[in-house]
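Data availability (excerpt). The following record was deposited with the supplementary files.
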Amino acid sequence: MSLHRTFEQSGNWLFRWRSYLPLVLTALVLNGMQNFAYPFQSHAWDYFWEFFCVGISLLGMAIRVYIVGHVPAGTSGRNTSSQLADTLNTTGLYSVVRHPLYLGNFFCWLGISLFPHVWWISVITILAFCLYYVRIMFAEEAFLREKYGSVYEDWANKTPAFF
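Predicted structure:
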């Protein structure tokens, strides 16, 4: 099987389970909490750090809330089991990045991974996120390319995928 087909199939499988599989990272964060230490040995700095981490996660949630509240019915922002797009989302945050929901997810998980003060948890979270969501984005884009052809290609050529 070609690498293209493998990425697309695994991306579609991950797409179906994308709401649950990231919860595996919860075990990693909880493990990291066992070695908790206050930054700079200061309880006050810990409060600052906690607010910073929560702020990053809330930014992600705000992005997600905005997107879900503004995408039309029957589009990729509202489905849970298979690829769906009655129209191509190209306005709002979709005019800034092609995958704003996943950008929101990234910030949510980044804030959570930073919380325990253990650098390697954030590194693993970022790497896992890249491996996981790149395949999902690959599958979604293959679906949109097939369905919308040159309209999708024109939008994709001028809109970054993630950052």
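Summary of structural features: The mean pLDDT is 83.
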